[in-house]
Predict the structure.
Amino acid sequence: MIEASDLPAATRLRDRSSPEPDDLLADIELSRRIQVFCAWCGPAFVVLLFGGWGVMGGFIPMIPPSNTADQVAAIYSTNADLHRVGLVLGMIGVACTIPYFYAISMQMRRSAVRVPSLAILQFASGIIVTVVLMIPMLLFVGGAFRPERSAELTQMLNDVSYVMLILPWPPILGQQGALIVSILADRRPTPVFPRWVAFYNIWVVVLLTPASLIIFFKAGPFAWNGLLGFWIPAAVFGSWYIVMTVVLLRAVADEARADRALVLNGEVFQ
């Protein structure tokens, strides 16, 4: 027999004394739509970050760390308005990560027996990721706001912005760790996420860590414009949102389908 406390939030009504099936189904559908919207915020973030900050903002291809101050200032002075628009789009993209991480936690909490500690940890780490992405966006904006300033100051802003954007992977490790443990600990016949997603996330962590070396090199594969310093971690970082969106949408659909079946079979609140 299924009790109300055992069900996902989507199947609980505010008025528990006399739940109507139509109200339950409407509540389930609303929850599904909200989570689907949140899931699509992941790909939106990738497009806005790399398309806005990267292409329109003029920061991909990367400004080489070996450039002189005058060379860096010249790049900021070229197409300054287009760069500013791109940076605004990049900031909007970063904001999209909050609902995305929320959707992941909403699905992770389904595998929790009691307190969804891992889901909470994932979301808390995700908020930190959002913050450490937003701060360099604002610093890039600061550099683009007054490109006529001293070239040395523009170079300093550029250095700090790139380092803050690429280097802080430890909060992502908190997210990945919580997600990996949650998936591997889910021993139900039909888990929320397939087990291969856990092993995929382990490889994501491994491939992101070379970004730590950007503070030691100004040229070569480990510099912030190098293959191991940026391009591989960036490709892994961006593809993670695409892969997780696919499995997240499936998990949301599975939850809604299971909840609807419970209601239609009359197994709720009996």
About this structure: The chain is about 70% helix and 0% strand. The radius of gyration is 22 Å. Residues 1-6, 10-16 have pLDDT under 50 and may be disordered. The CA atoms of residues 95 and 208 lie 22 Å apart.
